[in-house]
Predict the structure.
Amino acid sequence: MYGKAFAPEYQGALTTLSVNSSLTDVLAEGIEKLREAERSGHPAEAARCGLAVAEAHRRLGNVREADQAWKASYRTAREAGDTGAMAWALWSGGTLARQRGAFPLAWRLLGLAAELGERAGDIVCRGYSLAGLAETGRIQGDYEAVGRLHEQLLAEARRRGEARHTVWALEGIAQMHRNTGDYDRAYELFEEAAEIADRAEDRRGHAWALRGLADILSVRDKDTEKALELLSRAEAGCRAMSLSSALAYNHKMRGNVLYRAGRHEEARQMYELALTEFRAMSEPRGEALARLGLAKSLARLGRDRDETAAELARLAGSLEGSGLKHVHRLVVRAQEEFELDTEAVR
């Protein structure tokens, strides 16, 4: 049995904030409480409030501000001798590094966060940090390396009855099944995640689960209208909470659904919107996926074959050394789809 979802990253004076609080509200209150703690000379409290500020900035796509905030939180926590707060700050920094595509840094910071979380006896921080490591590997396409870790974390979350973490793990495992072609199993897992998130009032997790279900309905069942309906429901949740990254990925997925349905002009528009959103938040993985979808849509709309080949080659070049193995495979698949030379991306 799962309880109501909660946000452990909202700490100190901010524990009353809901997992569904608008990020603009979180940011405003976080800054206010941070300043109060600083004025009162309470560094441990300042570090905890600074964590919420860092996370709000990150999820709003304010990369520079998020980077400054998590580092300030870590320094303050270290000065206060608060190992748990140091661990959470490192988790935030590692999550930001993954979002920015700095995967080696993400591995290092999240690994340190897990170690410090365990040392501090904070099992939630340890779990979130290990989850961050698992997600980093999954995003890079190393499914074999992190598949077992996802399953382990899912089992731990189920035992604790922690809805939000269970939903995250289910969605990660579902995405790996989807990307390896097991659509039925992926759908089952996304469906379970959506049900748990809905009961636990976890709007963020619910929006991601609906996106996953829409993807499967589109690619497996060719049910375009139902997929678009689910994406519209997910988008409403993203907008209510100001979830910039989730909203951009929602728009990218809408482009995918429209592209598969042969509605290439509508798909082009959505990919262009998503590309603008990803670039605004310096999100390289999302940017690469949106560029790929845009290139394919333009090709279907009659773009010159050589221009399509050149764009895919440029995209492949930008992915070299990035660690985004799955995206790289998608670029190769696109070249094969349009019967272009694939040597440039091998």
The chain has a mean pLDDT of 94. The CA atoms of residues 218 and 224 lie 5 Å apart. The radius of gyration is 20 Å. Residues 23-40 form the longest helix (18 residues).
